[in-house]
Amino acid sequence: MSTNTESTADAQPEDDIDNLEIEADPEGTVEEDATDATTNEEVDGEANIDSEPAADLTDEQDTSEESIAEASDEADAEDETEEESVLTGPPERFQAAILGGELKNFISTLRVIVDEAKLTVGSDGITSRAVDPANVAMYDLELSAAAFESYESSDGLLGVNLERFESVLKLAKKDDLVQISFDTSTYKLLIVIDGVEFTMACIDPDSIRQEPEIPEMELPISLTVEGSQISRAVKAADMVSDHIGFRCVEADKTLFIEAEGDTDDVSLRLTADEYESLDAADGRALFSLDYIKNISKKLPKTDDVTLTFGDQFPMLVDYEIADGECSVAAMVAPRIET
Q1: Residue 148 burial by CB count (10 A; 0-12/13-18/19+): exposed, middle or buried?
Q2: Per-residue pLDDT tens for 102-154?
Q3: Are residues 149 and 194 in the same domain?
Q4: b/e for 212-235, b at 16 or more Cβ within 10 A?
Q5: Strand partners for 127
Q6: Rounded mean pLDDT of 212-240?
Q7: N or C: which terminus of the chain has fewer CB atoms within 10 Å of its end residue's CB?
Q8: Residue 211 — pLDDT band, cuts 50, 70, 90?
Q9: % of the chain with per-residue pLDDT over 70
Q10: Distance CA 257, CA 153 (A)
């Protein structure tokens, strides 16, 4: 049995950075290694996949960031009358088969911000929503039953260790069939990959952080562009700064992705020739590069990605995977510009 240890989440685009403008101070230099540049002394333990965000990160967030946490509290108050209908127990039956590549992508996307997650299963498929410990980034995924080779499930809720799940899936190649079923007597998932059987204990969903509601916002700027364009801008920004800005100029129908460092600046200018569509309005929002970088690693390179944001508002990142059978929505809160 061959073992596939490749991780699409680590892939970095190799595109030429033709449209990027880098301004360097005569005495400054740009680090050749974009990855190492993120560890400059100005980053005081900001959030990444492997560590918790620094405490001061949330203090610097725009008030709109608070809406991620506040939305959950408001939703709880509004939905008290519906609590009885909320799923709290495991499914009476769950059995499915899916290609390894599709399941890996689903699990590793959630893994960008959390190590544990609740999976809501039902006849229509699997959904999951999670927010990182600092209330800065959130994912909302819906994996349709049509994405599976076979699928049968009653309504229920499962808590899973994403880190463990991701490790098991490393044995599956992209086109390997992964069979999953839930044993109601042991409260474990049975995962079968090319004849190898794994049993993985589920987690009590009540022990996993309550997922928030997505706040309702009217965001005036919406850009649809190929995912590789965003990835190359993030790669360039990583060379000079630990923050990244998105700025739209309505009159020119142009969007800029920018980063400013101590000595060097970088800017990617996107015009009508580079993007699929743009609902333009004047506005700018600044974000922690660590969050945007981690999210960008999961973007499809050749498919469209939609960015929606406003002046000092959170940004929504929407795209599809699994041949359009899985919708992904990420939200990132901005940082205050001082």
Answers
A1: buried
A2: 999 999 999 999 999 999 999 999 999 999 999 999 999 999 999 999 999 99
A3: yes
A4: bbbbeeebbbbbbbbbbbbbbbbb
A5: 120, 142
A6: 92
A7: C
A8: confident
A9: 74
A10: 43
Task: Give the whole-angstrom CA distance, residue 155 versus residue 149.
Answer: 19
10 falls within a domain? no
CA torsion sign for 312, 39, 317, 79 is negative
Residue type, 45: G
Residue 14 CB contacts under 8 Å (≥ 6 apart), including other chains:
none
End residue of a domain, out of 156, 189, 207: 207
The pTM score is 0.75
Distance (Å, whole) CA 250 – CA 169: 45
Query: Rounded distance, CA 28 to CA 187, Å?
Result: 58
CATH number at residue 95: 3.70.10.10
Question: What is the per-residue pLDDT across 314-338, written as a single tens digit (0 to 9) for each?
Answer: 999 999 999 999 999 999 999 876 6
What's the domain range around 301?
15-67+216-332
Q: Mark which of 207, 236, 251 sits at the end of a domain.
A: 207
Q: Is 63 part of a structural domain of the chain?
A: yes
Predicted confidence at residue 156, as pLDDT, reads 97
Q: State how far the Cα of 196 lies from the Cα of 177, in Å rounded to an integer.
A: 11
Among the listed residues 178, 174, 190, the one whose alpha carbon sits nearest the alpha carbon of residue 323: 174
| Domain tally, the chain | 2
